[in-house]
Amino acid sequence: MIIARSALTGTTQDIAPCMAPGLIAEDTRPSNSVTEAALPRERSLFAGRIAAMVLAVAAITLATRAHAAAEPNTRLVKCEGKSCLLITGERDSPRSAVQINDHPINVQGGRHWRAELPLSRVRELSAPFARSIEVTVYNAESGGATTRDADLPIGLMGHTDLASLIVRAR
Questions:
Q1: Which of 16, 76, 88, 97 is the most buried (most CB within 10 A)?
Q2: Which stretches of the chain are DSSP H helices?
Q3: How far apart are CA 133 and CA 85, in angstroms?
């Protein structure tokens, strides 16, 4: 049953499916308490799902960054008055040996290691025009090895002799 209340007089009456102008309809049917009670629960489930997705994306992002941090890095530095290649990386144990292009090298540090090699030594260990070096870390506990490529600075192993350099502005 639907009851209409007059906005002017405040009287109520039973109305037919079409309402007269000036009347405000009030639904006197009993409320569906199951549906109304389920709304906050559904909203909290939806919020929980959103929170779970945000946490999953954050975990994937952090795992990707952690994986990227394990890659060896290279850069040019000055050592003893000449140019050297600084190679940094990570290993499971300070006892783990490190090799560059299948040649053992001495490293400093523990889990986070570093090695400075003169460019003449890097050229001896690498192929001409190489763009990367192969860094192998041997795990002292398991006996396994992990090999990764480390990019060399651009032009490090190429010819650096320039007869001339022409720069034009457009």
A1: 88
A2: 33-69, 119-125
A3: 11
- Nearest alpha-carbon partner for 150 in 76, 75, 97: 75
Instruction: For the beta carbon of residue 98, count every other beta carbon within 10 angstroms.
Output: 19
Report the SS3 class of residue 17: coil
Pairwise CA distance, residues 135 & 14, whole Å:
87
pLDDT score of 118 more than 80: yes
Task: Please tell me the distance from the alpha carbon of residue 98 to that of residue 91, in angstroms, as a whole number.
Answer: 9
Q: Mind listing the pLDDT tens digit for each residue in 95-108?
A: 899 999 999 999 99
Which residues pair with residue 135 across a beta bridge?
Answer: 100, 148
What phi and psi values does residue 46 have, to the nearest 5 degrees? -65, -45
Whether the predicted pLDDT of 24 surpasses 60: no
| pLDDT exceeds cutoff 90 at 87 | yes
What structural domains and CATH numbers belong to the chain? 71-151 (2.60.40)
Residue whose entry in the numeric block shows the structure tokens 């651009």: 154
How far is it, in rounded angstroms, from Cα 107 to Cα 114? 6
Distance CA 72, CA 135 (A): 7
How confident is residue 11, by pLDDT bands cut at 50, 70 and 90?
A: low
What letter represents residue 3's amino acid? I
Q: CB of 74 within 8 A of CB of 151?
A: yes
